[in-house]
Design brief:
Elements lengths: L19 H10 L2 H31 L3 E5 L5 E6 L2 H13 L4 H5 L5 H14 L1 H20 L2 H11 L10 E4 L15 E4 L5 E11 L5 E8 L11 E6 L10 E6 L10 E15 L2 H7 L11 H37 L1 E2 L2 E2 L4 H32 L7 H30 L11 H11 L6 H14 L2 H14 L6 H22 L3 H6 L1 H28 L3 H13 L4 H6 L4 H4 L1 H6 L8
Parallel strand pairs: 3-6, 4-6
Antiparallel strand pairs: 1-2, 4-5, 5-9, 6-7, 7-9, 8-9, 10-11
Helix pairs in contact: 2-3, 2-5, 5-6, 5-9, 6-7, 6-9, 9-10, 9-11, 9-12, 10-11, 10-17, 10-18, 11-12, 11-13, 11-14, 11-17, 13-17, 14-15, 15-17, 17-18
Bound molecules: flavin-adenine dinucleotide.
């Protein structure tokens, strides 16, 4: 059982050891051999994230990066100056092996473990994960789509485990005219007679702007205008081959609400050296004997590989904030007194904390679900439906966890009362940072529309529903009522999705948000039932079953009268189990 009253503060704790639910997720998603391997590394990283990284994050937020555009002689240098607190954390992550995991430990790193590391890091500082996540994303794109020369030149930088040899990655897509719609991208790529490429154009949101390796979209001269079919994917190195500054002019750093650690800038490419990674789809189509073979190829599609990986990262950012806010709120509520009792002894506060943890665990179920399929896909041992499942759970988890980050930050802030609103308590920064994640890597509307697109184009819909039905079929008898209800709900969403898919796109789009939210609820609930079955069978512990029951009751059987007058007081009576993780022998 976790004794929050014994903690002075969340910072300084080992965030893995104080999170029995993360431990359960690792038990559920890792094989026995991987679990043994993961345990000491999670303990080590839990101490680092909850200790030095969390402490420095507060300092960095108050001392954000600044741009030194000119040197003392007035020559343009475009240097971004970081506070030592940010650099120390980056160094710790590089030396921990964050970017060279497989090489450092000489073995495959299971996806659930890397997701857990990211989750722990995001509890401290989501902006750091943004900077670091884009590095991993750039490495992955170059590994899969780059030339041999690009792999040899850039991967050692992006995958270094020594600070002096490390270089980070970034992706610049968004232009002034918009980020959701990339069709109008106006950055131009010109190829010189010697075959080398030069870029000219403006990029409007460039996070981690001082990265060493930037992936960007540009339209080669002559490629179709106004459509993503005409976009190529280019690599822009920070320095030209002769070591001089490349034509990347940082006009200014944005004055952001949150995520201040990572410098986000407006940039102009001026006669900027670039390397082609993937040609525009229009180009591939014209060169292929059968143009349909170019479907799913081209510059934007390769860029979307990175965007999808980043979307899973942003989902973990929202989740990390949700967990941090729950932990902070739980500790505060065990210390702060009102009317002669600790806050956590008051029934309505118990309901607030229980609601927070139920929502947290539901979102976590969704975020960790694709890790197994991703592992199988990378080992080329995929089960039927794995790729489609990853395709649809990615936008669903981003949608849900990013929103829960904002909601739990709001709820947690209120647990602190007026102090929550004050910057020298921990909650204000969390709320400021959380607000970014519903926008980054696709706004809520755009990811909801992406769920619909995955159903239209990638057959994810049938894969998702059959996986949900299979999972439910093996769920525990103790949750028979919830399983019945969920089975009916899956049938209803199946019907509704078929109806939406038969509509014209204007009418279907109108319904995309509702449909995605409903699916996220059903998926989360089904996955909670699955975890509940695991914990009941292995540990005879009904805590997770109670979490699943409460989630179903709140989201899928919302009976407002029952919430007010029924006999179920479990949020108060089973508070020890739900919030302090005491095992529960019998499901009430
Ligand atoms: C802090 C921060 C850092 C960022 N870093 C980067 C970065 O490193 N690289 C990068 O490329 N971008 C970056 N972005 C940009 C981000 O990806 C975009 O802001 C995002 O994709 C949305 O684009 P937009 O801001 O142009 O909004 P718009 O595209 O103008 O959208 C405005 C609103 O319209 C809605 N909307 C748009 N189209 C539709 C539609 N068809 N149906 C319904 N609603 C619609 C959107 O949901 C949104 O609510 C960053 C943004 C922020 C805030």
């Amino acid at each position: 059982m976790i004794d929050y009253s014994s903690f002075e503060s969340a910072v300084g704790l080992n965030w893995y050891e104080t999170d029995p639910h993360l431990q359960l997720l690792m038990d559920r998603h890792l094989t026995v051999g991987d679990r043994d391997f993961a345990e000491p590394l999670l303990k080590e990283f839990g101490a680092l994230a909850g200790g030095a990284i969390a402490e420095r994050a507060e300092m960095t937020d108050k001392n954000p990066p600044r741009l030194e555009r000119y040197d003392r002689w007035g020559d343009e240098v475009g240097d971004v100056v970081h506070h030592p607190s940010a650099l120390d954390t980056k160094r710790d992550l590089v030396e921990f092996g964050f970017f060279a995991l497989e090489r450092k430990w000489g073995r495959r790193i299971p996806q659930p473990l890397s997701a857990a590391w990211a989750y722990l890091l995001c509890q401290a500082e989501t902006a750091m994960h943004c900077a670091m996540g884009m590095t991993t994303g750039a490495a992955s794109v170059i590994e899969h789509a780059g030339t041999d020369e690009q792999r040899d030149r850039y991967l050692p930088l992006l995958m270094a485990d020594e600070w002096d040899h490390f270089g980070s990655g970034a992706m610049f897509l968004t232009e002034r005219q918009g980020g959701s719609d990339l069709g109008p991208v106006s950055t131009v790529a010109r190829q010189r007679d010697d075959g080398a490429w030069r870029l000219d154009g403006d990029k409007w949101f460039c996070s981690n702007v001082d990265a060493d390796v930037i992936l960007t979209l540009a339209r080669p001269e002559g490629a179709p205008e106004g459509t993503t079919r005409g976009l190529g994917l280019f690599l822009v190195p920070r320095r030209r081959r002769d070591g001089s500054r490349n034509g990347i002019v940082i006009k200014r750093l944005k004055d952001k609400l949150g995520t201040r650690m990572v410098p986000t800038a407006e940039v102009t490419f001026v006669d900027c050296d670039a390397e082609l990674v993937t040609a525009p789809r229009s180009d591939l189509e014209s060169r292929a004997s059968d143009p349909s073979t170019a479907r799913g190829e081209g510059g934007l599609n390769r860029m979307m590989d990175m965007v999808n990986a980043s979307r899973r990262g942003v989902a973990l950012m929202g989740l990390g904030i949700a967990r941090r806010c729950f932990l902070e709120a739980a500790i505060y509520a065990h210390h702060r007194q009102a009317f002669d009792r600790p806050l956590c002894d008051w029934p309505l506060m118990r309901r607030v904390l229980v609601n927070m943890i139920v929502e947290l665990e539901a979102a976590a179920a969704l975020c960790f679900e694709p890790t197994g399929a991703l592992d199988r896909l990378s080992r080329k041992e995929a089960k039927r439906g794995d790729a489609e499942l990853v395709r649809v759970i990615t936008p669903l988890s981003k949608l849900r966890a990013a929103r829960r980050g904002v909601e739990l930050a709001t709820a947690g802030l209120e647990v602190f009362g007026g102090n929550g609103y004050i910057e020298n308590f921990p909650m204000a920064r969390q709320l400021r940072d959380a607000q970014c994640h519903t926008i980054w890597e696709g706004t809520e509307n755009i990811v909801a529309l992406d769920v619909l697109r995955s159903f239209r184009r990638d057959a994810s819909y049938t894969a998702l529903l059959s996986r949900l039905r299979e999972t439910l079929a093996t769920g525990p008898d103790a949750l028979a009522r919830e399983k019945n209800l969920l089975a009916g709900e899956i049938d209803r969403v199946d019907d509704a999705t078929a109806a939406v898919l038969s509509m014209n796109s204007e009418r279907a789009d109108l319904r995309a948000g509702e449909l995605a939210a409903w699916l996220a609820d059903i998926c989360s609930a089904t996955l909670l039932v699955d975890t509940a079955g695991f914990a009941l069978e292995r540990d005879h512990d009904a805590r997770s079953a109670l979490v699943a029951r409460l989630y179903v009751r709140h989201h899928l059987a919302p009976d407002r009268r029952a919430r007010v007058v029924d006999d179920d007081d479990s949020e108060a009576t089973h508070f020890d189990s739900l919030v302090r993780y005491a095992p529960l022998e019998v499901l009430p």
